[in-house]
Amino acid sequence: MGRRRVELRRIEDNTSRQVCFSKRRNGLLKKAKELSVLCDVEVGLILSSAKGKLYHFASPYSIDKIIGHYRHFVNSEREVNEHHSVQGCLKDFSYPRVDCQILEIVQWCLDETNISKLSVNDLSQLESILEGTLAQTTSRKASVAHI
């Protein structure tokens, strides 16, 4: 006998609603843990029952650290608009481009006043771009040296 689809509507009976919440809460917490382990991501989950009791799950860090990370991300996104972000600077970037344009972008990103505004995501993107450019430069240097 298979499972049947449950119509999504409010359960009127308080006892049935509490039992359903308890079962689904445990399932949701299990799925959050699986997501964290399988995908190596930060997961923070906060639930508030009808009676006002709080439940939370955080992995691999504490819920406070995840909320702090979220707040920092939101604040960083507000401070740096798309035009001044690494992604905004590089959305028109396509290989091959003139070296001076690459240098201008990197110089803008590495300027002390600008680098402090970059989010962790922007810094990771910048690092990836620099590593890619370095690999291309090294490859080009090796091919020119062997000619």
Automatic annotation (TrEMBL):
The UniProt keywords, alphabetically, are: DNA-binding, Nucleus, Transcription, Transcription regulation
- An annotated GO BP: positive regulation of transcription by RNA polymerase II
A single Gene Ontology MF term assigned here is: protein dimerization activity
Gene Ontology cellular-component terms for this entry are: nucleus
The keyword Transcription is assigned to this record: yes
Domain MADS-box as annotated: residue spans: 1-61
Which SUPFAM superfamilies does UniProt cross-reference here? SRF-like (SSF55455)
Cite the SMART domains for this sequence: MADS
- CDD domains annotated for this entry? MADS_MEF2_like (cd00265)
PROSITE patterns reported in the protein's UniProt record: MADS_BOX_2
> Can you say where in the cell this protein is located?
Nucleus
Domain of life from the UniProt record = Eukaryota
Q: Where does it primarily localize?
A: nucleus
Entry protein name: K-box region
Native organism? Musa troglodytarum (fe'i banana)
